[in-house]
Prior knowledge:
Elements: H1 2-8, E1 12-13, E2 16-17, E3 20-21, E4 25-26, H2 39-58
Antiparallel strand pairs: 1-4, 2-3
Amino acid sequence: MKLIKMTLQDANGEVKIQSQWTKASGIERGLRQGDELSTTPFNIVLDKVIRNLRTYLDRTIFNRMS
């Protein structure tokens, strides 16, 4: 966890609006787009959603009967 915090510490970002860049500002939340770390939380959350969906569908008319 400490390593993750270190990689995100002092992160800055700029936004391009038309052809002008804004001043750099600190990023306080979230992960940078394309960051290698962003795939892990995404996969963990997606796995939970899929498991919950399967449980939900097992209790509905969509459940196939063998």
